[in-house]
Amino acid sequence: MFGLAMRSLRKRASAFTASFLSMFLGSAIIMAFASMLDTASAGGATGPAEETLSTMAIVVGGWGLLLVVFAVTSTLTLSVRQRAAEMALLKSVGATPGQLSRMIVGEAAGLAVAAALLGIVPGMLLGRGLLGLLHDTGQVPGDIGYSFGSAGLSMGVGVTLVSAVAAALISARRATRVRVAESMAAAATDRAKLGRKRIVFAVVFLFLALDEAIVTVTVMDGEGSNAMMTSGQADIFAAIGLALLAPAIVRRVTALLARPLRALGGPSGDLAISTMRNRTGALASAVSPVILFVGIAVGTVYLQATENAAMDAAGLTKSAEDKSIETLNFVVTGMVVLFAAIMLVNTLIAATAHRRREFGQTRLAGATPRQVLGAVAVESVVLTVTGVVCGTVASVFTIVPFGLARRDSATPDGSVWIYVAVVALAAVLTGATACGTTRRTIRVPAVEAALR
């Protein structure tokens, strides 16, 4: 089955692009931050400089790891879900669940090794850039040079491989435990259901977010900037928890908007609602990165804005530690924005391109290319609004508790245009990617697309 996995990778390279890019970018990010440990050791850093480098590696790298695992699991699950018909065919000719699992894990391991090896050079470049930022802000002395060694390499390759294999095992379990008839039905529709374990994990993450928020308001009240240690994590936990619940959220939103979209959108609205009901899994995969993007970006930026306002009100000057925390926050925001944006684009391209046959059949049934494109545009609006609303809810777990603890106000400091910019970027990425991919897809003649 390993040989079959390698042949599958060669023949279906485009189907694995989203997973590969998630692993590639994830390995580069992990290597960049993990190399700060190599830099601290090789450069002889001591005192605040050593603490800053270690914090960058452990705190930011740790959150990066969590996001990478989530992204790889999401894209691999989407890839396996799109191959339901292939899995059913293999089962019908005698493939056992164990053989299918080994094939899926083999594919993931092959992708992970290639992605991690190719991520070494970008990881080194990102690491140099990160150290340069620390030099410019005076947090690390300029005589400490960059070093990339065993910590960066082992963590980058090891974490990427382990997360890919773990994600593949999760995806394989779902694909192999259903019967052949059920697999064939899954190939026609993608009405993802929330499994018990997924619900448990979602509840755990949401509980952790609530716990961090309560601790911030109670224990950390009056503790100054130290309240960032608890509140800064809450939006990440909440965003992941809501992202895990995305299939149920998408189903609920579809039910609520079915009537108004059909009334206002005409044929395109009707097509969009039908698709959203039958393709819940793929759409939920697209909503997840929007939730992460909005929740963590909005929460972190307004967190720092509130902290800056509190220091200005007290007439304080930022210390080296304050600058380090601010740098950490903006690095986290930049990392999340970049990673979530790429994850969003990858997922949408993979999900939309896979619908070539669906688009062809819809056009043969009488829909015009403009109506198909309009339906995708309606879907994009719904996905964006859903992701923005859920992401905003996630950010509240950070913004409100920190504002109460630091400024005795639930209203965050900072311009409203920050929020508008984040929402606009999410909308542009979602709409432009989905509609652009659809335009390219429907250029194929309807008969040819329907037979693929």
TrEMBL record:
InterPro entries: ABC3_permease_C (IPR003838), Macrolide_Exporter_MacB (IPR050250). One of its GO terms (cellular component) is plasma membrane. It is a multi-pass membrane protein. It is found in: Cell membrane. GO terms for molecular function: transmembrane transporter activity. Residues 61-171, 331-434 form the ABC3 transporter permease C-terminal domain. It comes from the Bacteria. Keywords: Cell membrane, Membrane, Transmembrane, Transmembrane helix. The chain crosses the membrane at residues 58-80, 100-126, 146-170, 199-220, 232-250, 282-303, 328-351, 372-404, 416-435. PANTHER family: ABC TRANSPORTER PERMEASE YTRF (PTHR30572:SF4), MEMBRANE COMPONENT OF TRANSPORTER-RELATED (PTHR30572). Belongs to the ABC-4 integral membrane protein family. This is ABC transporter permease. It comes from Actinomadura darangshiensis. The lineage of its organism: Bacteria, Bacillati, Actinomycetota, Actinomycetes, Streptosporangiales.
